Recover the amino acids of this structure.
């Protein structure tokens, strides 16, 4: 190479070397910057992932775990930490509030006891557990007697105080393991796991009733009330609720059904206890189960009898008690075939000859009708039959001025009672003054506030007569007869049959008071000649009972009814 070439190469190298050195330095700086940027990106990614993780834990409600994560550096880390702490406190407050609301929903605000649905829920669980262990489960339904009177006489504050005291006493006396709840009003339930047998459950119920009978001291008053208790036992080794508690499928539905069935049995027993005199304990046992089954069959048979016209009406005469009439009517009847000289009227009475059973006690018929809601239907049937029969007798020349029909408190309070009576009169073509409605003394009093008094006034405005029946069995004073909306006073058979000077004076006082207030006084239940003479001597204007005549079917009684002195022309018997 020439010298010139070497000089040129050296000059080029001198120029390139600095450039190469500068490029190397620049490359190193770039690599460092890239590494730093990569590290920052990685840190940002980790921070974003941690933020995402914190948010996810917060959304799942696991705020404690979110607080355990490492805190991010800088303001973002501080903000995230503050947010996590705030969310944790909010979640804790929400849980506390939810627990409070759940407790309030499941517990009575006045007594703090579990409410009905919670009692049923826990009863179902106890039934399942006792069934699996082969134990009996007991349930007691405790009802305070006369609680409404406490509210009425002492105010609701006293009533609330009584309920709180009763709840506390039940909880203390129920024993360990028992669950006490308030079903509503003055009704409490006590679930007794592993209850033992029927005798053990009775003893527990008696202990609770005794605890509630102790006086309750409240501000300004001391309250003493009794309680009635119904007991029901689920025995896994027997039929009934023991099987229903789980059966082959021990699911929640089976337990719930068994719990409701056991509660219904306890309620039925409690109702029986109150009806038997209060302050008592009644056990729903096999005997009661059989009675209820028989009651159900009787109710169904009564519905069938009404639908198939298997019911009948009989009539018992009411005769005047004037001198020898009391004796004459009796002797004429006893002779057989005799005709009653005169009647004040007849009372229509319902009778039921149940197929396969024979005659049914009228008290059983009334009780069955009240249970199954047939009272109005039966009384409407008697109204129609009695009105038609009186028109038939008149058309056939028989002198029967009035027919009486019993009217219950339930029917009297029903707004349909006035249309029912007027329809019966219109269908038969009977004058309203020839129909008399017999209302018992207790029924007339029970009707206060139910509209019964207004219904009675409306019927009297139409001309229908009213008799106050069974006088002497209730609390009506003799002075109250002055304002009683009645035309006739029927003295209860208990007063008629009572012997002794005091009973005679009371009968005489009643008869004179009735006469003073313009009422016709009839002695009921006259069974003997002596009773008839005593009633006549006391001033009773009429008598009714076996001494004069039994209750007979219309065709049996008709030949012995007195004849009209002058037949009414143009009267035709209704076609039936």
């Amino acid at each position: 190479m020439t010298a010139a070439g070497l000089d040129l190469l050296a000059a080029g190298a001198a120029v390139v070397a600095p450039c190469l050195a500068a490029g190397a330095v620049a490359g190193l700086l770039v690599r460092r910057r890239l590494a730093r940027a990569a590290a920052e990106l990685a840190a940002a990614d980790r921070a974003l992932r941690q933020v995402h993780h914190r948010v996810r834990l917060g959304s799942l409600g696991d705020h404690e775990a979110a607080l355990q994560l490492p805190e991010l550096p800088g303001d973002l880390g501080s903000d995230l930490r503050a947010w996590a702490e705030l969310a944790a406190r909010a979640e804790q407050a929400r849980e506390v509030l939810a627990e409070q609301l759940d407790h309030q929903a499941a517990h009575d605000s006045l007594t703090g006891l579990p409410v009905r649905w919670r009692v049923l829920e826990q009863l179902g669980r106890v039934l399942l557990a006792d069934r699996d262990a082969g134990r009996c489960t007991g349930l007691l339904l405790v009802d305070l007697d006369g609680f409404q009177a406490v509210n009425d006489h002492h105010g609701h504050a006293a009533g609330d105080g009584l309920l709180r005291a009763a709840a506390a006493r039940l909880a203390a006396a129920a024993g360990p393991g028992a669950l006490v709840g308030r079903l509503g009003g003055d009704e409490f339930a006590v679930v007794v796991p592993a209850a033992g047998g029927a005798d053990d459950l009775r003893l527990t119920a008696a202990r609770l009733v005794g605890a509630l009978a102790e006086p309750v001291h409240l501000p300004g008053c001391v309250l003493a009330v009794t309680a009635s208790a119904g007991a029901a036992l689920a025995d896994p080794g027997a039929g009934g609720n023991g099987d229903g508690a789980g059966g082959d499928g021990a699911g929640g539905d089976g337990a719930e059904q068994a719990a409701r069935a056991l509660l219904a049995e306890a309620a039925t027993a409690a109702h029986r206890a109150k009806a038997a005199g209060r302050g008592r304990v009644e056990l729903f046992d096999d005997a009661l189960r059989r009675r209820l089954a028989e009651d159900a069959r009787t109710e169904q048979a009564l519905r069938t009898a009404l639908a198939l016209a298997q019911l009948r009406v009989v009539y018992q005469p009411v005769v005047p008690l004037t001198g020898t009439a009391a004796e004459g009517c009796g002797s004429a009847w006893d002779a057989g075939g005799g005709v009653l000289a005169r009647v004040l009227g007849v009372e229509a009475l319902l009778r039921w000859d149940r197929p396969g059973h024979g005659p049914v006690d009228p008290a059983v018929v009334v009780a069955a009708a009240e249970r199954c809601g047939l009272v109005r239907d039966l009384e409407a049937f008697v109204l129609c039959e009695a009105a038609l029969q009186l028109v038939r007798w008149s058309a056939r020349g028989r002198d029967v001025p009035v027919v009486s029909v019993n009217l219950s408190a339930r029917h009297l309070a029903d707004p349909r009672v006035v249309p029912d009576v007027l329809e019966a009169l219109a269908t038969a073509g009977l004058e309203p003054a020839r129909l008399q409605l017999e209302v018992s003394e207790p029924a007339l009093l029970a009707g206060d506030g139910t509209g019964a008094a207004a219904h009675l006034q409306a019927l009297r405005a139409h001309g229908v007569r009213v008799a106050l029946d069974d006088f002497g069995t209730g609390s009506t004073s003799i002075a109250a007869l002055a304002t009683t909306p009645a035309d006739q006073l029927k003295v209860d058979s208990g007063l008629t049959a009572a012997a002794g000077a005091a009973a005679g004076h009371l009968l005489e006082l009643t008869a004179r008071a009735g006469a003073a207030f313009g009422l016709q006084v009839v002695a009921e239940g006259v069974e003997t000649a002596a009773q008839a003479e005593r009633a006549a001597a006391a001033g009773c204007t009429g008598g009714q009972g076996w001494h004069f005549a039994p209750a007979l079917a219309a065709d049996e009684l008709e030949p012995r009814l007195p004849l009209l002195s002058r037949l009414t022309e143009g009267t035709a018997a209704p076609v039936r």
In short: The longest helix spans residues 3-59. The chain has a mean pLDDT of 84.
